[in-house]
Design brief:
The structure holds two protein chains of two kinds.
Chain A (H helix, E strand, L loop, with lengths): L1 E5 L2 E3 L5 E2 L6 E2 L5 E3 L1 H25 L6 E7 L5 H10 L3 E5 L9 H19 L4 E5 L10 H9 L2 E13 L4 E8 L2 E8 L2 E5 L11 H9 L3 E3 L19 E7 L9 E3 L6 H15 L1 H5 L8
Parallel strand pairs in A: 1-6, 1-8, 6-7, 7-13, 8-12, 9-12
Antiparallel strand pairs in A: 2-5, 3-4, 9-10, 10-11
Helix pairs in contact in A: 2-5, 3-4
Chain B lengths: L14 E5 L1 E2 L2 E2 L1 H17 L3 E7 L8 H8 L4 E6 L8 H15 L3 E5 L2 H14 L3 E5 L1 E4 L5 E7 L4 E7 L5 E5 L16 E5 L11 E7 L13 E5 L9 H10 L3 E4 L1 H5 L20 E5 L5 H7 L4 E6 L12 E4 L2 H13 L2
Parallel strand pairs in B: 1-4, 1-6, 4-5, 5-12, 6-11, 7-11, 14-15, 14-16, 16-17, 17-18
Antiparallel strand pairs in B: 2-3, 8-9, 9-10
Helix pairs in contact in B: 3-4, 5-8
The chains are: A alpha/beta, B alpha/beta.
The structure holds flavin-adenine dinucleotide (2 copies).
């Protein structure tokens, strides 16, 4: 079984600050991390590989056939993210990097990644499952997973909680999918692309062996020329139909908030003042929702 | 920014809204989008069309058509097929992609729901067109192109995105971000039917079951009229009872910030913000919440925001309508009592 996991290196947004005067993002010194959502995808992939290795070992005495390949598209420093993924236990890593990928929107990103995955398939055997995270914490569009699936023309299974069964003979896969109102149980075919939901597993701590292996492993690095696409206008800025025209700070609220409650009033007093304020300023509220309290 | 559109795009004219159905009920986000789509169509001097897809209803197409017209659609594209009984990506993508290829809309809007995001990503990639995610504002520029504005970097900045080199211009919008339009009594408009040319054997995905969530552990924050939210300022999990008591007294739902979910004090369905739910209640009481941008983007659509915080410089006072500098532990129970006296 061969599983490909797409990971993205992102700025750690908990540490991003906006410059108070110029309103621009201050990226300097902001550490980068693997997009947190992608770790749930990686863990599910590693779990399935290990499960499969057990099965294989039992039947074929060949525990070597399950492999997880991680791939990222980004600047050369994105290799750090791949290295980290190897320490968690991924088997091999591919960095897709080229200045001509710069400025990609989700369509161009999906296209580039799908070309890289096709090439991974040629080199190492076609993947059975491709995983992505649910979304990133920077671009945050959740569009790249569906984009890759469409470019490769395979099934997409989005918002997946877990893979419950894989039948290698029939090439079928069962998954649980999270919808707004509940859980959907789906049977589909492999190969497929899964966008993995967050919070239902935790990335393993890689073993020392894996850390050592990760330090030794080489990361495959591919540029535009390696992807075997003639029409290079499909990559990067040229291949991106969307254009960011303007970045600006949200307008502050025109009016400052009304301040109620001062140090020398009792809480009961403040509470009454607040309720009175609501009743006088928003009579509709006092007569509407607030007048029919729940059980 | 004057740009002539390549001639092959000039026959793309109208504004479309994908109408999402939940058990043949129209998802409110689609109605919000019809309201928004109507404004865009009027600015363009174009028509507004709804797209309805689902299993055959025996003629009429079900209540979705009536709703589409009542909220401003001039016409509806209707695709009915047994294959569209449950949402599955393949047949829905095929149906919508075919419709767009034949009828060429200028703009196509979908809700940023589980279904909408799943469908929009596939359709945009099939059509090789641009898709702007989670927009908070849609406008028509002086040259007639769609200016789609969305939060970036966790809401601390906004950016305006255009789709220049392809059509349609696609965008998704989260539920409750746009306001609900007025319902109109309007005669039924034109219905254009389309056949789905696909057979079950071409579809690899089968839905084999569905388990509805227990309503009690999955609050519908997005639809609540009154929300009482709390953050780390409440101090300890045990103090959630004061928040719950106030919420019950005023008939509201309880919400929270992300750290409370991370600590396991509250379920993730209660998280308000960028990576949680967007709320649009009539009243939002926020207690012990600092007002980080990631929280703010999910909460600022509330009609009235009352913030309780013991730090007079907390950023939440920048976007609350009423600020109360007080200890939440003491004020919440007092408020519950004060409302009970109403
Ligand atoms: C502020 C901002 C707003 C943007 N808005 C839009 C927009 O509205 N429309 C648009 O088309 N583009 C937009 N972009 C560009 C978009 O972010 C990039 O195309 C980006 O390369 C991928 O999109 P994403 O970060 O939203 O990923 P998502 O679609 O959210 O990512 C989903 C998953 O895909 C995988 N993945 C994503 N990127 C990579 C990668 N480079 N390498 C490996 N795996 C990856 C990961 O597994 C990830 O979890 C925006 C960018 C920024 C910075
Ligand atoms: C990618 C990303 C996504 C995120 N998404 C979300 C999201 O969707 N939703 C979200 O909420 N957060 C989100 N966050 C987290 C966000 O950045 C903030 O960390 C979080 O909102 C802060 O929560 P808080 O206000 O509860 O805690 P704090 O910021 O710690 O604020 C606690 C407040 O309580 C006040 N306080 C203390 N004691 C009392 C008292 N006795 N009475 C009254 N007030 C008191 C303090 O003055 C302080 O203002 C996200 C972060 C990242 C990086």
């Amino acid at each position: 079984m061969h599983i490909v996991v797409c990971i993205k290196q992102v700025p750690d947004s908990t540490q991003i600050r906006v410059h108070p005067v110029t309103n621009t993002i201050m990226r300097q010194g902001v550490p980068t991390i693997i997009n947190p959502y992608d770790l749930f995808a990686l863990e599910e992939a590693l779990r399935l590989r290990d499960l499969f290795a057990l099965e294989e070992a039992r039947w074929l005495r060949d525990p070597s056939r399950g492999k997880v390949t991680v791939v990222t598209m980004g600047p050369p420093m994105a290799a750090q993210a791949l290295r980290k993924a190897l320490t968690y236990g991924a088997d091999r890593a591919v960095l897709v990097t080229d200045r001509r990928f710069a400025g990609s929107d989700t369509l161009a990103t999906s296209f580039a990644l799908s070309c890289a995955i096709a090439k991974i398939g040629e080199r190492f055997g076609p993947p059975d499952i491709i995983f992505t995270g649910k979304q990133t914490i920077d671009g945050d569009t959740a569009q790249v997973g569906p984009g890759i699936a469409k470019c490769l023309n395979i099934q997409q299974l989005t918002y997946i909680k877990r893979v419950t069964r894989i039948d290698h003979l029939r090439r079928s896969i069962d998954v649980e999918r999270c919808l707004e109102g509940g859980t959907q149980f789906i049977e589909s075919k492999m190969p497929c692309l899964i966008t993995m939901l967050d919070g239902l597993n935790t990335i393993r701590r890689g073993s020392i062996d894996e850390s050592l292996r990760a330090a030794r492993s080489s990361i495959l690095t591919w540029g535009v020329a390696d992807l075997g696409v003639r029409d290079v206008d499909k990559f990067g800025l040229k291949g991106s139909p969307t254009v960011v025209k303007r970045v600006f700070a949200p307008a502050p609220r025109a009016q400052k908030s009304v301040q109620l409650g001062t140090a020398n009033k009792t809480v009961r007093h403040v509470a009454d003042e607040l309720v009175a304020w609501i009743s006088s300023h928003q009579p509709k509220l006092a007569d509407g929702p607030l007048s029919k309290p729940g059980a | 920014m004057m740009m002539m559109l390549p001639t092959q795009f000039q026959d793309h004219r109208h504004v479309w809204v994908y109408i999402e159905l939940e058990e043949s009920q129209v998802n409110p986000v689609s109605i919000e989008l019809l309201g928004e789509g109507r404004k865009l169509a009027d600015k363009l001097g174009a028509q507004l069309a709804g797209v309805v897809m689902g299993p055959p209803k025996g003629g009429g197409g079900g209540p979705a058509l009536e709703e589409a017209f009542a909220y401003g659609a001039d016409l509806v594209y209707l695709v009915e097929s047994q294959l569209l009984t449950n949402y599955r990506n393949e047949p829905y993508t095929k149906a919508l992609t075919d419709l767009v290829t034949i009828h060429k809309p200028e703009i196509l809007l979908l809700g940023a729901t589980t279904l909408g995001r799943d469908l929009a990503g596939s359709v945009a990639t099939s059509l090789k067109t641009g898709l702007t995610a989670d927009c908070t504002e849609l406008n028509i520029d002086s040259d007639g192109s769609l200016a789609a504005t969305r939060p970036t970097f966790g809401g601390s900045l906004l950016c305006t995105i255009y789709t220049l080199s392809s059509r349609p211009q696609m965008a998704t919008v989260r539920p409750r971000v746009m306001s609900m339009p007025e319902r109109q009594t309007k005669p039924v408009g034109r219905i254009i039917r389309h056949e789905l040319t696909m057979v079950e054997e071409e579809i690899a995905t089968k839905v084999i079951g569905f388990l509805a969530d227990n309503r009690s552990d999955r609050p519908d924050l997005a639809k609540a009229d009154v929300v009482v939210g709390c953050g780390l300022g409440i101090g300890a999990a045990i103090n959630l009872k004061h928040v719950g008591a106030l919420a019950r007294t005023i008939g509201g739902e309880m919400g929270c910030t992300r750290p409370l979910v991370q600590k396991g004090w509250a379920s993730s369905f209660r998280q308000i913000g960028q990576t949680g739910v967007t709320i649009r209640p009539k009243l939002y009481i926020a207690a012990g919440i600092s007002g980080a941008v990631q929280h703010r983007v999910g909460a600022e659509g509330a009609d009235l925001i009352i913030a309780i915080n013991n730090d007079p410089h907390a950023p939440i006072f920048d976007f609350a309508h009423v600020g109360v500098v007080a200890d939440a532990h003491r004020l919440l129970p007092a408020l519950t009592k004060a409302f009970s006296r109403l």
